[in-house]
Amino acid sequence: MTPDDYVVTAIASDFADHGRLALDSFLSGYYAESIRIIHEAHLAECTASDGDLCLTCEAIRAGLVGILAERRSAASLNTPTAAS
User: How far is 15 from 38, CA to CA, in rounded Å?
Assistant: First the structure.
C-alpha cells in the first residue's frame, strides 16, 4: 500500500467507528471527489466539440448522478418522520 492508501484506510476506519452512516458518507464524498478530479483531468484532454457525444464525459456524469442519488437515499433514510 502507498502512504496515501494508509491515510485513506485510517480515515475510513475512523468513520467506520462512528457507524455505518458515517462510513457511507465518507465513501460517498471520497468517490465524488475522485470522480471530480478525473472529470477535470479528462476535460483538459477531451476532443469532443460542443454538442458531440463523448462517452467518457457521459460515464463521469452518470457516476456523479449515481453518487448524488445515493446521498439523497441515505439522507431520506435518516430523516426523522412525523411518526417517529
Answer: 24
